[in-house]
Structures are given as C-alpha cells and as structure tokens.
Amino acid sequence: MLGLRRRAPAGLTPRRALILGAVQGPAELLPVSSSAHLSLLPWFAGWRLDGRDPRSQKDFEVALHAGTAAALLLGQRRAIVDELRRLDGTRAAAVVLSTVLPAAVGFALERPIERRLGGPRTIAAGLVAGSAAMLLADRSPRERGPSDVNASDGLALGAAQAVALFPGISRTGATIAVARWRRFTRSEANLLSRTVAMPVILGATVLRVARMRRRTIKPPVRRALAAGAAASFASTLASQGLVSVLDRDRSPWPYAAYRIALACAVALKLRQAGIDSA
C-alpha cells in the first residue's frame, strides 16, 4: 500500500551485530567505554530491541569480547611476549591481585548493575565521571616505571577494573587513571592497563563460553553471535595502531572531551524526548 512505511526489524539482526562488532574494537582499545557505545548506539539509532532475551544479550557480549580477545592475542603477541619476559615475582603478584576484586564484584553484582544502571542517564554520568578521573589523575607526577610495580598497585588496578563494571566508566580509562594517580608515567600506565585487562577479559570470556555450551542457541541468535564476533575480531585487529597512539605520552584531554560530548548528546536526546512527550 502506498504511503505505508516498512516497519524496522526487531531484535539483534546479523547486520546490527556487524555494526556493533565494528564499534567494539576501537572502543575497547581507547579509554572511551566500549559498553557505553554498545548500549548507546542502538538507543540513538532507534533500534527495536525491546523484548530481547537477556541471555541472548549476554551471549552477544561474550561473542564480542571473544573476538576482541582473539585479536589482541594475535595483534599484541610481541608485546605480550615482551611483558612475559619481564614478569618477575612482584609484577606477577600485582597482575594476579588485579584480577581478584573485579572477578568477585563481577560475580556478585554484574547482573544487578546491568539491570539498574544500564540506562542512558547512568551511562552519561559514568562517561563524565570517568573523564574527570582521567584528567585529575593525569596531574600526578610521572616518576614511576616498570620496575616500581608492587602488590598495592595490583590491588588499586583491581579496584579500577571493578569500578569499570559500572556503565560508561571504561576499563581502559579507569586503569590508566589509577596508574597515573599512583605516579606511573603515561606510557607505563597504558602498558599496565593492557596487562591487567587481558587476564580479566580472557577469564570472563572462557567462563561465559563454557556456560553457553550447556544451552541450545537458536539459529538466528547463532548467526548474530558469529557476525558480531567476526566484526569485533576484524575491527580490533584493524585498530591495533590505536595502541601506539595511546603510548605516545599524550594527554587524556581528547578522550575526555569526546566522552563529555557523547554525554551531552545523550542529555540533549533525553531532553528532546521529554519535550516531545509533554
């Protein structure tokens, strides 16, 4: 019939999964919060994702992180080997300690956090809070290097990764901010951020994949998972140059400004929605 609009598809289609997977790579490598982008992009685009099975959503996040982890292992293999070569007992203990708190908090609070704090308003607040933390922490002296890492640093980095479970904070941004707050140089803070993130990403991915294998996944969901994982792998691999950009001892101002601009865009959309409904 003329003038009848075609209704937009509901749910997570393979095309939408490809788009989100393409965003996942660079958003995970930079301190801009990949979780915020994965939540806000469908919201801004007006995708009809209501009624979606929460388990399918969690499976999709696992697929994206699996793609990211595989690409990081491949793309950063030389850096990983170099890090393993200098991994003495103290540094190894710091890495282990950095995983304890996020694992415990994630196990106990991940689902309540997602249910109660996953909306646009809280994500925008997390983006602004994370920006402020990065800028304030970067004012600390740059006087500590690789040989200065200790157990208390590991605990502090673990706390940062636990806080990053809150939407909009960013694991990369939080760990870099804590490392700078503890007076590490910018380049060492970036390296520490990647070092402590890898075990958490890999551990969470392996655990969730094992849980997924116990359930039957419907073919449409399986196709979306495959598309998202492939796109996440490709986008992360293609974005490896962003790691060197972070390592060039640059100020966090560009990332903080972007995060604040994104939060302002959320606020404007919420305000417009309030005016339209009035």
Tell me what the structure shows:
By secondary structure, the chain is mainly alpha-helical. It has one domain. The protein is built from twelve helices and no strands. The chain has helices at residues 14-29, 34-45, 54-75, 77-85, 89-117, 120-137, 151-163, 171-181, 186-212, 219-238, 241-246, 253-277. Helix 6 runs parallel beside helix 8 and helix 7 packs antiparallel against helix 8 (171-181). It is globular, with a radius of gyration of 19 Å. It starts with 13 loop residues before the first helix and ends with a helix. Residues 1-5 have low confidence and may be disordered.
What Rg, in angstroms, do the CA atoms define?
19 Å
Helix content: over 70%
Strand runs, count:
0
Give the overall silhouette: globular
Count the domains.
1
Strand-residue fraction?
A: under 5%
Q: Given the helix and strand composition, which structural class is it?
A: mainly alpha
pLDDT averaged over residues? 86
Amino-to-carboxy terminus distance: 32 Å
Largest β sheet strand count, sense and barrel closure: none
* Quaternary structure type: single chain
Could you spell the SSE succession in H and E letters? HHHHHHHHHHHH
Low-confidence stretches: 1-5
Number of helices: 12
